[in-house]
Design goal:
Layout lengths: L2 H24 L6 E8 L8 E6 L4 E7 L4 E7 L5 E8 L2 E9 L17 E8 L2 E6 L2 E6 L4
Parallel strand pairs: 1-7
Antiparallel strand pairs: 1-4, 2-3, 2-5, 5-6, 7-8, 8-9
């Protein structure tokens, strides 16, 4: 390979690396591991909560959660990761995204932001759905009848 071809190859390599780094920053750090927790915090004595979660490629399955039960799963984020859940409780239901790459890293809890696995913690309550934000919970969705 002559000098001109080596320079061309080097430029292509640098451009590819920069493009990959930019993609990581724009998408909210590709490759991060996320843990999703869904907990039943409905009133004591309530009927169980039925939950079905999935993405385009992964069906997490149906889960029946009694009060104070939870289930969880984890995944490695890609550019367009989206998980949604369908919830049923008595005559109420709700469907919404429990994780979307557009949420960004700040939406999920981590003791050391920007480092290591991220945890997205959701609670189903009688008046709606709450997501953990630091040491408090914020109401994000409501039940539909």
């Amino acid at each position: 390979m002559d000098f001109q071809h080596k320079n061309f190859f080097f430029v292509i390599l640098i451009v590819s690396f920069c493009t990959f780094q930019t993609t990581q920053l724009v998408s909210g750090q590709l490759g991060y591991i996320f843990h999703i927790h869904v907990a039943n915090q409905l009133p004591v004595g309530s009927n169980p909560l039925l939950v079905h979660c999935q993405s385009k490629d992964n069906d997490i399955g149906y889960h029946t959660l009694n009060v104070n039960d939870e289930f969880q799963w984890h995944f490695t984020q890609s550019l367009r990761t989206l998980f949604f859940c369908h919830f049923w409780w008595d005559n109420k239901q709700a469907i919404f995204d429990v994780f979307n790459s557009s949420f960004g890293i700040g939406s999920c809890h981590n003791e050391f932001p920007g480092q290591g696995p991220q945890t997205c913690y959701w609670e189903a309550r009688a008046d709606g759905f709450y997501m953990a934000s630091g040491n408090k919970f914020i109401k994000m969705n409501i039940w539909q009848i």
